[in-house]
Amino acid sequence: MAGEDNNREARRGDDHEESSPLLQVNDTKINSKVDTKTAPIVPPPAAEEYGWTADGLPVSDGSVIGEPIGRNQWNSGLFSCFGRNDEFCSSDLEVCLLGSVAPCVLYGTNAERLGSAPGTFSNHCLTYSGLYFIGNSLFGWNCLAPWFSYSSRSAIRRKFNLEGSFEAMNRSCGCCGSCIEDEMQREHMETTCDFVTHVLCHTCALCQEGRELRRKVLHPGFNAQSTVVVLPPSEQTMGRK
Residue ranges under compositional bias (Basic and acidic residues) (predicted)? Predict the structure, then answer.
């Protein structure tokens, strides 16, 4: 009898161990550890490559709230020689005069407003002047300076998210959008159109860029720190009693 009782107690102990919830929890922890070790490591998703940006926002992927970013229009047309009849009318006439008489000065001022770095005006103006005189001396027309100055048009277009010539032509006729696959290829086409614009309509392109910059960027000379002027006290008189 004693032996049978011992066997029954041993069986009850085994059943209790098998049905113990603590053992089940330990088993699940061990199995989870084994699964995590044997599970394949999934690499993180690759970062999405954005195209050209405007003011820090990706153009190809829309704005931060998911809406597409529309291109801005130029403030004046390419052939608007005298500009617009607004508060910048006198500045537009100055731009037209500089573009006709001294395009090197106009290009230098445009680069100075765009770059705002010390020596920007002199470096760009002198380089443009050298190419201008070489082109007119050897070929009879200003054919070398546009190769140097067209990059400023691309920089202005990217900085202010302006509509380029290729996009404007595609919007008007719709015959060129099918050959563009991504934003990078579109930017190459826009840069090519900027170069063609400077070669064929060089003076008009410089004037359009000058009018655009004068309406959106202050001259670097106005960005200086304010100075405090201390006036001397007015003349004082002693009163007699």
Answer: 1-19
58 DSSP 8-state letter: E
**Residue 60 pLDDT grade (very low, low, confident, very high; cuts 50, 70, 90):** very low
Q: Please, which residues have CB within 8 angstroms of residue 189's CB and are 6 or more apart in sequence?
A: 166, 176, 180
Alpha-carbon distance of 193 to 174, in angstroms, equals 16
Give 4-23 pLDDT, tens digit per residue.
555 555 555 555 444 444 44
The residue-averaged pLDDT of 170-194 equals 82
Nearest to 57 by CA among 72, 76, 75: 72
Helix (H, G, I), strand (E, B) or coil at 72: strand
Residue ranges in 116-235 assigned as alpha helix (H): 120-138, 145-159, 165-173, 183-200, 202-216
